[in-house]
Amino acid sequence: MTGTPPDGDLAAGVLARVGELLSGLSAADVAALAQGRARLVVVPVAPTGHPADRPAAPTSATPLPTPLPAAPVRPTPSGVDLDAASATLDTMAHRRDGTAYLTPWSIRDLRALAARLGLRGVGGLRKAELVERLVDRTIGFRVASAAVRAR
Q: Rounded to an integer, what distance in angstroms lies between the CA atom of residue 126 and that of residue 121?
């Protein structure tokens, strides 16, 4: 993939990368995107040291603002990355997929994810009820919103 354009137009660089990504997808995947049955998700990755992974040098004379340090990723005691789990749930289109993804989790990890998502009052819930609430909060909310927009 190419880097950002020489004139520094960030939007043009992003559009060029999205175009490259779309050209590599199957016709079925592109159709799913166009119909709203799939979506693209931005997942930050750590630079690998490859020149294409490094940010382009600034092209203007004005200094860029110093970015705030990223919050540390806090895995649960059992090692579940809650940010990655939240991102995974964001990519799912069906409640059953979310239920299947969360059912093997321990109740402790489910409660940690609920706290990460801002769910309150889940301390006394059984595991199945907690999974249902988490799925409703993530996938269910999106499905309901899409149904309202489709009207």
A: 12
Q: Which two tokens stand for residue 137?
A: 């909060």
The answer to whether the CB of 146 falls within 8 A of the CB of 93 is no
CA distance 143 to 32: 15
Alpha helices in 9-69, H assignment, sequence order: 10-23, 27-34
Rounded Cα distance, 133 and 119, in Å: 8
Tokens of 98: 């979310």
For the chain, 151 residues long, give each residue's pLDDT as a single digit of tens.
Answer: 455 455 568 888 878 887 887 777 777 777 777 777 777 666 555 555 555 544 444 444 444 455 555 445 555 667 788 888 888 888 888 889 999 999 999 999 999 999 988 888 888 999 999 999 999 888 877 666 665 566 6
pTM summary value: 0.48
